[in-house]
């Protein structure tokens, strides 16, 4: 199994993985991936096993993240491993690649988030040493 940066030739398989995590992201896929491939503040790493992509992590540099004291902060924007490959160490290796990237960009802290209902994601973060720093409820109003 190999962890490596996303390449343009990965895009068809990457689309399937990304829409598995974010089903509503299909319409914005080309724009989002173009940003990842062309912006030094964004990166994506993929897990490849036997010629198949089985997971990915998207990471960014943010100026601020809840609970962090430094800037910039490495931020796990998205993290996904296909269900049959979970709990095999692939997710851990993907996050390590994201953390290494952030460290190389000068970050001393890493942050992430998870929806309140995503207890599996929260547990995965905790297993990798991430500490919960805040819970919030977001609001919206049409004007």
Automatic annotation (TrEMBL):
Assigned EC number: 2.3.1.82
The entry's keywords: Acyltransferase, Antibiotic resistance, Transferase
Subunit structure comment from the entry: Homodimer.
Phylogenetic classification of the source organism: Bacteria, Thermotogati, Deinococcota, Deinococci, Thermales
Catalyzed chemical reaction(s): kanamycin B + acetyl-CoA = N(6')-acetylkanamycin B + CoA + H(+)
UniProt organism field: Meiothermus taiwanensis
GO biological process, alphabetically ordered: response to antibiotic
A GO molecular-function annotation: aminoglycoside 6'-N-acetyltransferase activity
Protein name: Aminoglycoside N(6')-acetyltransferase type 1
A Pfam family that the UniProt record links to this protein: Acetyltransf_1
Domain N-acetyltransferase intervals: 1-143
UniProt cross-references to CDD domains, sorted A to Z: NAT_SF
Bilayer-crossing regions: none
């Amino acid at each position: 199994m190999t962890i490596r940066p996303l390449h343009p030739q990965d895009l068809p398989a990457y689309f399937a993985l990304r829409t598995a995590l974010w089903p509503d992201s299909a319409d914005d896929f080309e724009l989002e991936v173009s940003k990842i491939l062309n912006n030094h503040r964004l990166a994506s790493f993929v897990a490849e096993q036997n010629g198949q992509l089985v997971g990915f992590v998207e990471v960014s540099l943010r100026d601020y993240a809840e609970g962090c004291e430094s800037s910039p902060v490495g931020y796990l924007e998205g993290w996904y491993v296909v269900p049959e490959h979970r709990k095999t160490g692939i997710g851990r290796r993907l996050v390590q690649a994201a953390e290494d990237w952030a460290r190389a960009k000068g970050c001393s802290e890493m942050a992430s988030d998870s929806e309140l209902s995503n207890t599996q994601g929260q547990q995965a973060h905790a297993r990798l040493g991430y500490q919960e720093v805040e819970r919030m409820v977001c609001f919206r109003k049409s004007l």
